Amino acid sequence: MSSAFASLTKSDPIPLPFDPPHTIIVRKLSGREYQRVQEAHAIGIATGDARIWSARFRRLLENSIAEKAEIERAIADPLTGFDRHLLVRLGTVAWSYPVSLKAVKAVPAVQSMDGQIQIPAIEAYDPIDDLSDEHVDFIAREVLRRTKPALFQSIDEQETERKNATGAFIEA
User: Fold this and answer.
1) Fewer beta carbons within 10 angstroms: which end of the chain, N or C?
2) Sorting pLDDT into bands at 50, 70 and 90, what band is 121?
3) CA-to-CA distance for 109 and 154, rounded, in angstroms?
């Protein structure tokens, strides 16, 4: 489903290929959220306009002295310049795991007047922070795929889509 409102653009259940039978449902990020995932990546690396951070980071990589193949791989990766955990946190709507998506805040134990524990402590738990790297990477890609599909297209595919969109606009 596509909508001008990101919160209304949700996927069908997506099977996790490395963890059957589990699935996820993700959504498109809003413009503000898209900016936040780039800001989160940029904060520790450099200051600048977060809206274009992923493009700026790719240019930094292009001008780097690192191995050429490594640089090309990073430039080609759609997730380059984006905070993967924040993509997952903002874009995951539901999953089939028997764990809530919502983080649990720590609560200290409450003792009675005689020193007995009346209410046990609750440990803090964040299921997004607890995900394996494989899960984070997969889910982040699915969120970004719905938010900015052009990042997953070849240059030829982008050009064809641009021409088709321009032609449709001219004909209308």
Assistant:
1) C
2) confident
3) 55
